[in-house]
Amino acid sequence: MSESRTKVKKVLPPATALYPLPAVLVSCAGEVEGVRRDNLITLAWTGVACAEPPMVAIAVRPSRFSHGLIARSGEFVVNVPSSGMSRAVDLCGNVSGRRRDKFALAGLTRAPARVVSAPVVAECPLALECRVRHTYRAGSHDLFVGEVVAVQADEDVVDPRDKIDVARLDPLCYGGGVYWRLGSRLGTYGYSRE
Amino acid sequence: MSESRTKVKKVLPPATALYPLPAVLVSCAGEVEGVRRDNLITLAWTGVACAEPPMVAIAVRPSRFSHGLIARSGEFVVNVPSSGMSRAVDLCGNVSGRRRDKFALAGLTRAPARVVSAPVVAECPLALECRVRHTYRAGSHDLFVGEVVAVQADEDVVDPRDKIDVARLDPLCYGGGVYWRLGSRLGTYGYSRE
User: Which of A57, A176, A184 sits opposite B166 (nearest CB)?
Assistant: First the structure.
């Protein structure tokens, strides 16, 4: 590591330069002017917030159609796509669902959730159904922190111990404006928790 | 996609099953019984929370030594390691810094931050200096939302437009209890934002 210690650091403007990020499809549903609507939004600004209870956070601009549905229903589903779904994921991140059905546009299928009223994306091998427990108005984005109240996964990405097999899941990564697959596995090491 | 539509979904217990996650080294500093201490903690539970101002969130258990330093100082640094640092990253996630110097133990070097008082990890090609703007006590973990107030990056991971070159950064991914490298780039697609 002595080589890298001598590298010159460049100072850049403050930015959200965190890599890699998970690229997910968030589904949501709610009433708009008395009519039930649902939508999909592609997000990479999502992460884990808590173990007990299990929680994940998503950052959504208030101007997005999905923001109102999530804020009013207090529910969302984080659908984790496989890398083969990158075109559908990209489309859902670049088209508004206010006047169009993004499921139809992207060739995706609604499936029932177990606990929440929002639909699950049938083609995604993994879905986390969430109920909003906290909203932080951060600035350009609201951070919704949701408790995971149910998980659905394709049988072929679940190992015999009911854990997700990440290699078989083949999740979609995001960084630098483009999508990536996961590469080689580096393994765990020998340090035991003290 | 018709094949995947027919797959049987398995219902799993609620869990934080989100993939991939960024594996980062968070550095922090503060006073403990009148003595200045610093520490490193490996986290994968981090994500982007806001664009304007730029914010990232980290989830930390209150029992961790770093939690007290971050809570008291109101500052932390998210150091993004390259994949070659996976052993050092793993060590920092499995040893407590309460009685030991994790920088020395992991062969890592303290470098000065630009804005905050916590040290930067010199070997990490990218560092986001953060000030805590919001803390959400989620349960087993506290979610610290920090505004990014400065970014430092190795010159060789910065492209001519001052953006991070993710392939050269070669960040460390986490999922399913093991570390991964990023794999093939899937590219951007043709959908223009409406």
Answer: A176
Lowest mean pLDDT among A159-173, B70-84, B101-115, B175-189: B175-189
Around Cβ A10, how many Cβ atoms within 10 Å?
A: 14
Query: Is residue B47 a part of any domain in this protein?
Result: yes
Cα distance from B175 to chain A (closest Cα, Å)?
7
The range of the structural domain enclosing residue B104 comes to 19-181
Evaluate if pTM is beyond 0.90.
Answer: yes
Please report whether residue A119 resides in a domain. Answer: yes
Is B5 a member of any domain?
no
Proportion of chain A above pLDDT 70, given as a percent: 93
Q: Which tens digit of pLDDT belongs to each residue from B3-13?
A: 445 578 999 99
Q: What letter represents residue B105's amino acid?
A: L
Question: Can you read off the two tokens belonging to residue A122?
Answer: 């049938």
From B112, which residue of chain A is nearest by alpha-carbon distance?
A9
Look at chain B and count its residues: 194
Specify the number of domains making up chain B: 1
Evaluate whether residue A25 is within a structural domain.
yes
Q: Is B5 in CB contact (< 8 Å) with chain A?
A: yes
Cα B88 to the center of its chain, rounded Å: 14
By the 10 Å C-beta count (0-12 exposed, 13-18 middle, 19+ buried), B173 is classed as buried
Contact B148, B129 (CB under 8 A): yes
Q: Where are the alpha helices (DSSP H) in chain B?
A: 2-5, 65-73, 86-92, 102-106, 166-169
Contacts of B34 (CB under 8 A, 6+ apart): none
Residues in B 88-147 with any Cβ partner in A closer than 8 A: 90-91, 93-96, 107-109, 111, 114, 120, 122-123, 125-128, 133-134, 136, 138-141, 143, 145, 147
Cα separation, A113 vs A35, whole angstroms = 20
Please name which of B63, B92, B166, B47 lies closest in space to residue A55, comparing C-alpha atoms.
B47
Minimal Cα–Cα distance from B36 to chain A, Å?
23
For the complex shown, is ipTM > 0.90?
A: yes
Indicate which CATH number applies to the domain containing A163: 2.30.110.10
Instruction: From residue B116, give the alpha-carbon distance in Å to each of A56, A90, B127, B148, B151.
Output: 28, 36, 12, 10, 11
